[in-house]
């Protein structure tokens, strides 16, 4: 590898570290590598950066320098348990893996959110349905009667709540 490529890689790493500093005061823009790459690949230096530029380092020349360093280094840096340089081919594979993991997490989060929303709807509907609760209470009472628990002296303690009836049924077995 030529010293020019080594120099470009070293400078690219330093610029990315500067982005980490301006974004959140850290030594690396953790989790922003893909967004930063997308920003420079788009080629619009007037587009807002994909990070918080709290120190005002983003200028036209900064943007052009970052693009040039990316091209000259023939790869990209990513924090993968340590700051690691990936060649262009390696980065293409790593990037696809990262994006697929993001999409899988997003899908799982959306599914979890939809399930919770549906559960809230069901609970809200159930709370509003007095006939449902009365039927559940009657069913639980029928279970008690079928088990002859009332004859064993439990008839005076039959609660109004179906949950208490069910709990009583299970604790007395």
Produce a short descriptive summary.
By secondary structure, the chain is mainly alpha-helical. It contains six helices and two strands; from the N terminus they run H-H-H-E-E-H-H-H. It is elongated and about 90 Å long.
Characterization of this structure:
This protein has helices spanning 3-24, 33-42, 60-73, 88-128, 130-146, 162-172, and strands at residues 75-79, 83-87. With 173 residues, it is mostly helical. The chain folds into 2 domains: 3-88, no CATH class; 129-172. It has a two-stranded antiparallel sheet. Strand 1 (75-79) and strand 2 form a beta hairpin. Helix 1 crosses helix 3 and helix 5 (130-146) packs parallel to helix 6 (162-172). The longest helix is centred in the middle third of the chain and has 41 residues, at 88-128.
Write the layout of secondary structure elements.
Blueprint: H1 3-24, H2 33-42, H3 60-73, E1 75-79, E2 83-87, H4 88-128, H5 130-146, H6 162-172
Antiparallel strand pairs: 1-2
Helix pairs in contact: 1-3, 5-6
Indicate the multimeric state. Answer: single chain
Radius of gyration: 31 Å
Which segments are poorly predicted (pLDDT under 50) over 5 or more consecutive residues?
A: none
What global shape is seen? elongated
Fraction in helix: 55-70%
Largest sheet composition:
2 strands, antiparallel
């Amino acid at each position: 590898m030529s010293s020019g490529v080594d120099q470009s890689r070293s400078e690219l790493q330093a610029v990315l570290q500067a982005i980490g500093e301006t974004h959140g005061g850290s030594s690396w823009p953790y989790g922003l590598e893909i967004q930063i790459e997308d920003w420079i690949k788009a080629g619009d230096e007037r587009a807002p950066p994909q990070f918080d530029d709290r120190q005002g380092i983003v200028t036209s020349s900064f943007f052009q320098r970052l693009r040039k360093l990316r091209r000259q280094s023939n790869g990209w840096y990513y924090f993968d348990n340590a700051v690691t340089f990936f060649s262009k081919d390696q980065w293409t594979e790593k990037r696809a893996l990262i994006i697929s993991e993001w999409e899988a997490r997003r899908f799982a989060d959306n599914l979890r959110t939809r399930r919770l929303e549906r559960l809230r709807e069901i609970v809200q509907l159930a709370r509003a349905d007095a006939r449902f609760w009365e039927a559940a209470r009657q069913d639980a009472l029928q279970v008690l009667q079928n088990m002859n628990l009332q004859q064993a002296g439990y008839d005076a303690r039959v609660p109004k709540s179906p949950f208490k009836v069910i709990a009583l049924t299970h604790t007395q077995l």
